[in-house]
Amino acid sequence: MNASTPTIQDAAEEAAKIDLVAILVTLGVGVVIWIVLRFIILRITRRVAKGSSFFRNAPFKWVQPAFRALDHERRSQRAHTIGSLLTSLLSVVVAGIVIIYVLKFLNVDIAPLLTSVGILGVVIGFGAQQLIRDFLAGIFITIEDQYGIGDVIVTAEVVGTVESVGLRITRLRAEDGAIWYLRNGEILRVGNRSQGDYVPVEDKDKDKDNGSGVSAEERSSE
């Protein structure tokens, strides 16, 4: 009995040290912050997707190049992609902070835990380098509007029409009708025929022929 009595007392003392009120407050504040920030992200996403005139005001004209006139489907996709990314990032950050504070109020030594999480993060980072590379490339492709739905692009692998742009994969329909799935991190160079003044090679040859007054057939007979 004498050996077990201190253990029970220690457990009771540890339980008494747990601040349940602080834990509940932390959880409540975390949920409220997540809901409010998520609501803000959704509102901004919907406005951008609908073509909000907010950025046309004088103080915000510098933002216009990033939100230049796009068709509704393309603008909507960009807005929802960025909104989804921000929502995921928000969830991870809020959840991580809340968990740390809850463990602290539970009198858990979080220093070794943080060290373990850091080591695990490094290991996962090395194993998922390509995945992270694809995600980062997808983010910059979307933000910089390098190409979007409906654009005809040229890559090292294929020439085709963009059907969807995700954070990891870009889906193209090639000229022969085949569907190509390209990992964003592996698209090193891309030419967008829809953004510039692209003219097909056949049309250029016709323009040259019309300018010289000599047809291609006449040149070949000569």
Rounded to the nearest angstrom, the radius of gyration is 28 Å
- Summarize the amount of helix as a percent range: 55-70%
Categorize the overall geometry: elongated
Q: Can you give the mean pLDDT?
A: 75
For the report, how would you describe the main beta sheet? 5 strands, antiparallel
Structural class: alpha+beta
Oligomer: single chain
Unreliable parts: none
Description of the structure:
It is a single chain. By secondary structure, the protein is α+β, with helices and mostly antiparallel strands. The chain has helices at residues 4-17, 20-50, 72-105, 110-127, 129-144, 201-212, 216-221; strands spanning 152-154, 159-165, 169-174, 179-183, 191-192. The mean pLDDT is 75.
How would you summarize this macromolecular structure in one to three sentences?
This protein is of the alpha+beta class and 222 residues long. It is 59% helix and 10% strand. It has a 5-stranded antiparallel β-sheet with strand order 4-3-2-1-5.
